[in-house]
Amino acid sequence: MLFSSIPFLYYFLPIVLILYSITPKALKNTVLLLVSLVFYAWGEPMYVFLMIATIALGYIFGLLIDRFRGKPLAKVFLFLSATSSLLALAYFKYADFFIENFNRVTGLSVPLFRLALPIGISFYTFQILSYTVDVYRGTVNVQKNPVNLATYVALFPQLIAGPIVRYSDIEIQLTSRSHSFDKASDGIRRFIFGLSKKIILANSLGELCDAFHLSADKSVAFFWLFAFCYMLQVYFDFSGYSDMAIGLGKFFGFEFMENFNYPFISSSITEFWRRWHISLGSWFRDYVYIPLGGNRVKRLRLFFNIFVVWFLTGFWHGAEWNFIIWGLYFGILLTIEKFFMSDLFKKHKILSHVYVIFFTAISFVIFSADNLTSALSYAGGMFGLGGIPLASAEWLYYLRSYGVILAVGIVSATPLVKIAVNRLKQIRTAANIINFLEIPVLIGLLILCTAYLADGSFNPFLYFRF
User: What are phi and psi of 158, to 5 degrees?
Assistant: First the structure.
């Protein structure tokens, strides 16, 4: 079930909010768990049992790790916990990838499993892993109530596509969280803005991207237009979902971490990844990069650490070589920055911003492809390889047709609107007008989004493929 759908907005969510509001405090987590399982089973009726089994193993291993804390068995149970979670992820997400490559190398024809990818498995696997690792490290208390742990993992606002909420972030909130009108109103505001980013901006830009894929009149200019549009589509699609998840969390008293912080204003790729998919980047930092030694190692080992992290980051996103190349591409850029370009960025701010947008646009073209062959073909098309012309009539047509939504997207991807509103709020009269208009604007956006959905407009969710 998509957040950006009529059944969720006007059936599921209102029923859940009513049930939650009338439920006694002691049973609120139980209600959240049950409705979260219904939410997941709506689209994955069989794989809900896989998620329950994964949660059960995480719960049992957590208890065993805590029981044998300080003894060799604790490490054994941590290993078993990580292995069981990662094996499930590998089987459902990567089995066919490994078989395909095995067949290519050996010339055999081992049949593929052709398994459907369980929605959200990449996210809830990382949540369970972080829980058992933190129990082993002693940074969180073991959760002895299975309902509370299951609620943490299955909580529907963040279940499908994050942010990757760590147990340490909401350990206290699971049993002691506050509910207030201010928090609920903030949640409504955040949810509607996220929904608008997804429906109005991401979906509109996605229509242009689909037109590019279907076009027989591609040009260098069209490739770059596609690159910028796809880059913004992914941003508004995923950050919009994160906004909706954070807003929904507030309805139920939870505070989730921010997942995006205007990444396109970055002046280096390093900064870009501190602002983009923050929960994933910090997860790999704390559970892979630092345990490998981080940057407190010799240079050769540092290179190894960086490329391991970025290989895994790319592979986490999908079982195709283009995702691995995409991850290693960023690993190379980050390595070059770290050792050769830090001083240059400080001296030339405008150049550094252009550099970030240029190389990030290329990365998203690689990211958008279905396979490595398409990725290389698209990347080559951006530079006119294969005799592709510089411009075409079709490119100009789509630039004119989508110029306004592209301009709105560019401005919305920066903090300019937020800064302007905050400055206006410092003026009493302007602040009163803004406060007066806020509710009508939110209602108008919700009506507009509903109209898009009722019309059956283009409404994919990109991160379902991961």
Answer: -115, 5
